[in-house]
TrEMBL record:
Gene3D superfamilies: Immunoglobulins, MHC class I-like antigen recognition-like. Pfam families: C1-set, MHC_I. It comes from the Eukaryota. Keywords: Glycoprotein, Membrane, Signal, Transmembrane, Transmembrane helix. Residues 202-278 form the Ig-like domain. This is MHC class I antigen. Belongs to the MHC class I family. Residues 1-19 form the signal peptide. GO terms for biological process: immune response. One of its GO terms (cellular component) is external side of plasma membrane. The chain crosses the membrane at residues 306-329.
Length: 357
């Protein structure tokens, strides 16, 4: 994904309002048993925008935005590449160890890690999380408040006891999440302020495959990634018969999200249903009232709907970028992140070192 600076050209409806809560996140994935994709990848994101990428085929970390490429020197890339090479070996061992604990001898298996921090630029409040998964399920997570590790599975108890006893490593993790991560997040926001501190309104469309299919409210082209897409009936939030999709990146740096409403035309013609889209940093709500004229379909037109084509292409790109199962595990783990508040500042890269489980 290229720098968001490319998408602002030609867009006239831009607001220079802060996103208020900013985030930095790294997703690391190790895969065994597949030859079609790299065994190891790392993706770094700021406010949902990918800015660095590493994999075991490239053997180096590369920039994915103009602002990171222009603001760091060669020592940054060497340090980050060296760290990833070391992490790659540890994660490869972790997959083998986990397979033994789960009595597995073959097949496709993954060890995934998500860690990062958030900073509210109005209140100064911060939060951080550090969580590992195995084969799409939670494996172990760091409780920043108690500085202990949580093992939701029996196979992770050995790791919990080992890591709880390593006081130095635990302190390093806390130091990284509460100090260095926040410090780097602020630096990156300053580097990319011309794009990261910008908001872009969404384009909202109602889609339906057939008259009996769910009605999809599709919001796309918005920035930043913080968004709520929900249905209302007669002004009241609708929860039943509603399915929410993931927030996904577009290839131009913006994002998209869909929410599906299942009901018959006879039902929605009796009541007023509307889709409401709210994007972080934009005060205006974007509303699309469900009427027959607003629904875009292709059941009377052999030509496929261009929006659906774009969605399919983006989905295929995400399979490559996210590697195996990251989005699935992220969805399962989102509520399980252990977050804590802090306002410390300092820097120490040792908190990002990978430990053997």
């Amino acid at each position: 994904m290229n720098g968001l600076i490319l998408l602002v050209q030609g867009i006239c409806l831009l607001h220079t309002v802060s996103a208020v809560t900013h985030s930095m996140q790294y997703i690391v994935t190790a895969v065994s048993g597949l030859d079609e994709i790299p065994e190891h990848t790392e993706v770094g994101m700021v406010d949902g925008q990918q800015f660095v990428y590493y994999d075991s085929v490239l053997k180096k970390i590369i920039p994915k935005t103009d602002w990171i490429e222009k603001n760091v020197d060669a020592s940054y890339w060497k340090r980050e590449t060296d760290r990833n090479i070391a992490t790659e070996q540890t994660f490869k061992s972790n997959v083998a160890i986990a397979m033994t604990r789960f009595n597995q001898t073959r097949g496709v298996h993954t060890n995934q890690r998500m860690y990062g921090c958030e900073w509210n630029d109005e209140t100064g409040a911060t939060g951080g999380y550090f969580q590992d998964g195995y084969d799409g399920e939670d494996f172990i997570a760091f409780d920043l408040k108690t500085k202990t590790w949580i093992a939701p599975k029996p196979q992770a108890v050995i790791t919990k006891l080992k890591w709880d006893s390593d006081i130095a490593m635990t302190e390093q993790k806390k130091h990284y999440l509460t100090q260095e991560c926040i410090e780097w997040l602020k630096k990156y926001l300053d580097y990319g302020k011309s794009t990261l501190m910008t908001t872009v309104p969404p384009s909202v469309t109602l889609l339906q495959k057939t008259p009996s299919s769910p009605v999809t409210c599709h919001a796309t082209g918005f920035y930043p990634s913080g968004v709520m897409v929900f249905w209302q009936k007669d002004g009241q939030d609708q929860h039943g018969d509603v399915e929410h999709g993931e927030t996904l990146p577009n290839d131009d740096g913006t994002f998209q999200k869909s929410t599906h409403l299942t009901l018959t035309p006879e039902e929605w013609k009796k009541k007023q249903y509307q889709c409401v889209v709210q994007v972080t940093g934009i005060k205006e709500d974007f509303i699309k009232v469900l009427t027959e004229s607003e629904i875009k379909t292709n059941w009377n037109n052999p030509a496929p709907n261009i929006v659906l084509i774009i969605g399919v292409v983006v989905a295929l790109l995400l399979v490559i970028v996210a590697v195996v199962g990251v989005v699935i595990w992220k969805k399962k783990s989102k509520k399980g992140f252990i977050q804590a508040q802090s306002s410390d500042t300092d820097s120490d890269n040792s908190g990002r070192a990978a430990q053997q489980i």
